[in-house]
Amino acid sequence: MKPIFISYTSRGRANAERLRSALKDEGIETWVDRDFIEPGESWESALQSRLREASAVVFLIGPDGQVSEQQRSEATVVFRSEWEEQPKLPLIPVVIGNPELPPFLQEIQAIRVDDVRQGWPEAATRIKQALSGARSAVSKPPSSGESEQKARLLEIQQFADFLRESPAKEKFAR
Amino acid sequence: MAAPRFEQSVFINCPFDPAYETLLHAIVLTTVSLGFIPRCALEAGDADYRFPHILELLTKSKYSIHDLSRFTGEGAANLARMNMPLELGVAIGLKLSRKKHRWAVMVPTAPVDPQAGQAAFEYQRYISDLAGKDPLRHEQTPESVVREVYSWLKTLDEVVNPQPGGPAIVAALPAFQRKIADSKDNALGKSIWADILTAALEAAPKVNA
After folding, report:
1. With a CB-CB cutoff of 8 Å, which residues 128-187 of chain B face chain A?
2. What letters, b where the CB count within 10 A reaches 16 and e where it falls short, cover B91-106?
3. ipTM confidence
4. Among A9, A63, A165, B57, which residue is least crowded by beta carbons within 10 Å?
5. Residue B202, in any domain of the structure
6. For B132-161, how does the pLDDT look when each residue is reduced to its tens digit (9 = 90+)?
7. pTM of the full predicted structure?
């Protein structure tokens, strides 16, 4: 199996190491940013080229559900790579506890870790199972976003109407 | 409705010249398709293209996108346009002042001037202070602009969920351009921001239930 890239926050570094160790026990090689990015190097370019050799990207999310700026940038690189690489690289959220996930991970089946001391071997096994099965194994059935998008588009229409009808008011009243 | 929600607003700082127009439209369609409201100086029409107005739009937007495509000198005097770097600086200042603001910089990778050669990493020379924060890099095509803006907006907390696919947005671009052309004809050749927003709403690929 090709290596897995692990994206984590600085606060999650110890857990990232635990997960790496558990995945190594499963025979899976892993990368994290500091493995291949030299000081002064364009890390996005380095990551983008490495992703071509990866089998998946794991987003390690802490109990607060927060995503770091670095993780968002890594997600941007992953989404950009989807335009070139087919099939898409699987994203696997590995989540400590049960926080609400950022939208870009909500449509993906997450692997939950309840015990940060002993839960990593099971998480590693589930990652391996997910990757050895169909890639769809890590995707949730799509939820209905029609009403949310419809509501957003309606708000934009209202703003466009407002601009059209009273541009002077829009300029000075805000 | 007095103004769009802060969390949903994306300030667009880019060239407004005819050569960039199709790229601006690519940004607008992508932004609208993902449930955000694009805001820029054009929304005030010709009447209020003042820096205070731009500052107000920036501070009322949680997000901003800054395209530094016009970094070379232009015209007989060989002058570069400094407005875009200036507004980028304001956005960075907003972020540093602990206000909720996130910004993205876009740069061209294809040479702006083919005679000048490859430009893939030229930004490292003309804005070296960005070292360590890689910009979004497009090839000065609408498709590549959609790809970059989509990949960035998709990571934001307020993105509509689920989202239409990026290729569907690219596929919707020709219809969007036609709608803009129609509305421009109806406005005696003038581009009206509200009409561009409406055209984007109509052309945006819809998420199926």
Report:
1. 131-132, 134, 136, 147-148, 150-152, 154-164, 166
2. bbebeeeeeebbbbbb
3. 0.85
4. A165
5. no
6. 677 899 999 999 999 999 999 999 999 998
7. 0.89
